[in-house]
Design a protein that fits this description.
11 helices, alpha/beta, seven-stranded parallel sheet, 7 strands
């Protein structure tokens, strides 16, 4: 099989949550530029619409804003997808939030906000879209669910982001659980555990903490859009046809060598 066919997502239908910026935008762009029809969702309507317009210069990208920390919004978004499509080939559960505070000051609101969006929405978004994913899957070609975890769910961070680290550890293991029970339905579930990429989230990290990350990372740099595009295309294409329940660090070696 030719490389172009092995890694192709042409003609596939994808939904990328948190797709208006950061890692989600990188993934959505990779799919759009390689021939997939991509829906993106984000809480802020204007940002979602702007990104969809920008990406539509390269292919087909549709904005469907929603706040996935709320169950009624998960239901509404799933209904909008069902009105438009009979199948969903790729679901990327990327929407997420973080919260940092010293241990003795960490608030309940910072716990619940992060857990609801980072963990709860991953499960219930996938559950609600299961019929469309099943419609896309077959013994010859699985539908794909790609959960975006984090290396902060693998390693012990130097940052006091307690709910974020716990949530991403949860996403990493939820990925394995979902993989086991959805595989018989011809749905392959895998995860990406990103390291540090330029984003609004990492922009909020203090300069000294960023320097510590770069000094500790063997490749001495942050990730870039091509780094994320490569793994996203791999997990959505025939190239990963026999990969199930994997959580792949994409971090320049930060979590795997320190």
């Amino acid at each position: 099989m030719k490389v172009e066919e092995l890694f192709s997502v042409r003609g596939k239908i994808a939904l990328v949550t948190g797709g208006s910026r950061g890692l989600g935008e990188m993934i959505a762009r990779a799919y759009v530029e390689n021939g997939a029809k991509v829906y993106i969702t984000a809480r802020k309507s204007e940002a979602c619409d702007v990104t969809a317009r920008e990406l539509s210069a390269f292919g087909e990208c549709i904005s469907l804003p929603a706040d996935l920390s709320r169950m009624d919004e998960i239901e509404r978004l799933a209904g909008l997808i069902e009105q438009r499509e009979k199948r969903l080939d790729i679901l990327v559960n990327n929407a997420g939030a973080s919260w940092g505070a010293p241990f003795h000051e960490f608030p309940e609101s910072g716990w619940d906000k992060v857990m609801d969006l980072n963990v709860k929405s991953v499960f219930f978004m996938t559950q609600r879209l299961l019929p469309l994913l099943e419609a896309a899957g077959s013994p010859q070609s699985n539908a794909r669910v790609i959960n975006i975890g984090s290396i902060e769910g693998i390693r012990t961070s130097h940052l006091e982001t307690y709910s974020y680290a716990a949530s991403k550890a949860g996403v990493n293991h939820l990925t394995r659980m979902m993989a086991k029970f959805l595989a018989p339905k011809h749905i392959a579930v895998n995860g990406i555990a990103p390291g540090y990429f330029p984003s609004k989230m990492t922009a909020g990290i203090a300069d000294e903490d960023t320097r510590e990350v770069l000094e500790t990372t063997p490749f001495k740099r942050m990730g870039n859009p091509d780094d994320m595009a490569g793994i996203a295309l791999y997990l959505a294409s025939k190239a990963s046809a026999f990969v199930c329940g994997a959580v792949i660090p994409v971090d320049g070696g930060l979590a795997t060598t320190s």
